[in-house]
């Protein structure tokens, strides 16, 4: 269970700035950007109470938020690891060896697609084309992409994460 | 060498920032446009022959002239930067490396259409590009190109970036508008077209990133000059994102007179196939368009050289031709398996179907299952006919063209590579290797 979500004053200012991008009375339009904020705040996923909180900020019904959060693939409605690897598996990436990369990560982390490691550090997701087909194989990692993946590159990304996690603790 | 209108300045250091962009002649089209009447700009765009670069190729000037203008009702311009068609990554390149070109085009287009608030709907995964665009917008504002009474023209304009959250269907314009309204991306029935009833019920023009960027050279050089580049109804330049088994994947700006063969094999573009392998097949316009075997790709059924333009790529219809689509050019070398590649596409469309229409929702899932069965060496001959049957039942029977987009690649794969499907059925143990 997560703690009830409350945004800081700075975040609430951001929420208001986002709502102001849309005409008066159309504050529901702000739902996607605000869910992105909530997911970031909530450790990479959205539980029911965070979604309810977003509904209250926008003055709409909770169901309107659930409907949206479950439709879009970037919102996680289940918990995920601290670091999420989202590896593309669509045609152009497949032609450049994405299947091998996925298999390599599965073996290396001893998890299957969609799973999280026991220490809660890594989640492996497979995703469909991310618009980086010319730089395949690739994955989304946080805010940016890691492209032209090789086994060596995967190793170094994993090491980078382990080092970061150790530094934070 | 092809003439470049969009990417000509991309190599200049600092072109991402306002100062260098402006020094290199950026934002001149805004100054020029403000001296023109909106109707005259629409005429220039019509003259240019520009066709929508999002994939459907609908004439942009005509779309703009269809925009309804009822008194007292706001109108909107929405830029489609959802770019999710497998094989397509051209808009990303443009936004990432020359973001002010899009902002400049947005200002001119907003002025022309009378849109005081315009949006860029960008796919959610392009998170860092959202920052790049927001930064460019802020720079444009600081320099007086956005906000109130821009350059004393009396025109007010704001541009906002709206980030999606992962759904291919939101690239379909009416699903995009639903998403912009804060709902699930479920396509609406057309007509009414967005030009009449768009976001929040107001008249709206939806245009692709590359289309809006192309407005800049059209205003700077004139519609007439733009229309002289290219051939026939394929005017101007086109961005092609090339990927798959080629030596130099990337984004290329071409004028539409070069041949497919030159595009694949010359060093100026894709640089040929790696490791001396042979060309097997190609999907020239993004995953939704028919795949072509090498012989039909390089020459039409009539034996003419096939060119990289709308008409030539479509020559032969769906039987022996394909489409320009979104310009996502996917090359397969001789070692690739068409069944396997098409399976990934079937899975993609199943994953992305919004679920509103049963032929699409059920049909895409069913196709994925049958493909998986064949790919895993468990297929029977009748499964190939079953696939053919399913795709035919989807095509034309759905609300939006995602259904067709799922059907066409399957139809073309079976039409041109039936022997490969049969090989899978006849050699089950080989498939599993
Ligand atoms: N760039 C990408 O990532 C992707 C592109 N596509 C492309 O999308 C295409 C299909 O797009 P659609 O929008 O469904 O095609 P469409 O032919 O229905 O419409 C094209 C454009 O013209 C406008 N239009 C057409 N008739 C009109 C009229 N009478 N009045 C006013 N406006 C009118 C539409 O509103 C739309 O903006 C496919 O051909 C495919 O190539 C598909 C998937 C992804
Ligand atoms: C399933 C589907 C996905 C689409 N995705 C995109 C897209 O990512 N980008 C885009 O510009 N157009 C996309 N389109 C086409 C749009 O509906 C629309 O035709 C286009 O944005 C109009 O702009 P244009 O006239 O400048 O091409 C898609 C269409 C369909 C059916
Ligand atoms: S064709 Fe598919 S994606 Fe399009 S509206 Fe129907 S179910 Fe949704
Ligand atoms: S297929 Fe992987 S990014 Fe496009």
Automatic annotation (TrEMBL), chain A:
A single Gene Ontology MF term assigned here is: inorganic cation transmembrane transporter activity
- Please verify whether the record's keywords include DNA repair: no
List, in alphabetical order, the GO biological process terms annotated in this UniProt record. inorganic cation transmembrane transport
Chain sites annotated for binding [2Fe-2S] cluster: 88, 93, 129, 133
PROSITE patterns with a match to the protein in the record? COMPLEX1_24K (PS01099)
The Swiss-Prot or TrEMBL record lists the needed cofactor(s) as:
[2Fe-2S] cluster
Q: Which GO terms describe its cellular component?
A: catalytic complex; membrane protein complex; organelle envelope; organelle membrane
Pfam families cross-referenced by the UniProt entry? 2Fe-2S_thioredx
List the keywords (alphabetical): 2Fe-2S, Iron, Iron-sulfur, Metal-binding, NAD, Translocase
Task: Spell out the protein name for this chain.
Answer: NAD(P)H-dependent oxidoreductase subunit E
């Amino acid at each position: 269970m997560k703690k009830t979500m409350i945004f800081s004053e700075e975040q609430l200012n951001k929420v208001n700035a986002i709502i102001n991008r849309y005409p008066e009375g159309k504050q529901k339009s702000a739902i996607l950007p605000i869910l992105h904020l909530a997911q970031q705040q909530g450790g990479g996923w959205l539980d029911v109470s965070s979604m309810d909180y977003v509904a209250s900020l926008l003055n709409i019904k909770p169901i309107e938020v659930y409907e949206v959060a479950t439709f879009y693939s970037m919102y996680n409605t289940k918990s995920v690891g601290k670091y999420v690897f989202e590896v593309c598996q669509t045609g152009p990436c497949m032609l450049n060896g994405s299947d091998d990369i996925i298999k390599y990560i599965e073996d290396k982390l001893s998890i299957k697609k969609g799973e999280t490691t026991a220490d809660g550090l890594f989640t492996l997701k497979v995703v469909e084309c991310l618009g980086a087909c010319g730089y395949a194989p690739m994955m989304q990692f946080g805010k940016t992409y890691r492209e032209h993946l090789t086994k060596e590159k995967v190793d170094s990304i994993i090491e980078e994460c382990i080092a970061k996690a150790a530094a934070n603790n | 060498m092809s003439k470049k209108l969009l990417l000509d300045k991309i190599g200049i250091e600092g072109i991402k920032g306002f100062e260098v962009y402006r020094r290199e002649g950026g934002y001149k089209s805004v100054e020029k446009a403000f001296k023109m009447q909106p109707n005259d700009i629409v005429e220039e765009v019509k003259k240019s022959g520009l066709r929508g670069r999002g994939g459907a190729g609908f004439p942009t000037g005509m779309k703009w002239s269809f925009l309804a203008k009822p008194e007292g009702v706001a109108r909107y311009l929405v830029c489609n930067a959802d770019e999710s068609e497998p094989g397509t990554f051209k808009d990303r390149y443009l936004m990432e490396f020359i973001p002010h070109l899009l902002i400049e085009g947005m200002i001119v287009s907003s002025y022309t259409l009378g849109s005081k608030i315009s949006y860029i709907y960008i796919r959610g995964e392009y998170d860092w590009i959202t920052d790049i665009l927001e930064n460019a917008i802020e720079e444009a504002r600081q320099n007086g190109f956005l906000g109130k009474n821009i350059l004393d023209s009396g025109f007010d304009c704001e541009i906002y970036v709206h980030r999606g959250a992962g759904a291919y269907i939101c690239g379909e314009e009416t699903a995009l508008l639903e998403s912009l309204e804060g709902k699930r991306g479920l396509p609406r029935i057309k007509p009414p077209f967005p030009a009449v009833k768009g976001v929040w019920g107001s008249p709206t023009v939806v245009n692709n990133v590359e289309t809006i960027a192309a407005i800049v050279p059209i205003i700077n050089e004139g519609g007439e000059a733009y229309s002289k580049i290219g051939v026939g109804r394929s005017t101007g330049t086109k961005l092609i994102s090339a990927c798959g088994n080629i030596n130099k994947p990337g984004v290329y700006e071409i004028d539409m007179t070069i041949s497919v063969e030159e595009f694949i094999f010359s060093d100026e573009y894709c640089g040929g196939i790696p490791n001396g392998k042979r060309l097997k097949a190609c999907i020239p316009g993004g995953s939704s368009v028919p795949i072509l075997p090498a012989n039909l790709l390089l020459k039409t059924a009539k034996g003419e050289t096939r060119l990289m333009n709308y008409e030539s790529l479509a020559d032969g219809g769906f039987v022996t031709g394909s489409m320009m689509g979104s310009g996502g050019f996917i090359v397969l070398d001789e070692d690739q398996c068409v069944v396997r590649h098409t399976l990934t596409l079937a899975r993609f469309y199943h994953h992305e179907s919004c679920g509103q229409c049963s032929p699409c929702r059920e049909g895409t899932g069913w196709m994925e299952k049958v493909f998986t069965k064949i790919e895993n060496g468990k297929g029977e001959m009748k499964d190939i006919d079953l696939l053919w049957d399913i795709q035919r039942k989807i095509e034309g029977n759905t609300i939006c063209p995602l259904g067709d987009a799922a059907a066409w690649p399957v139809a073309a794969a079976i039409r041109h590579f039936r022997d490969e499907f049969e090989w899978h059925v006849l050699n089950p143990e080989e498939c599993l290797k």
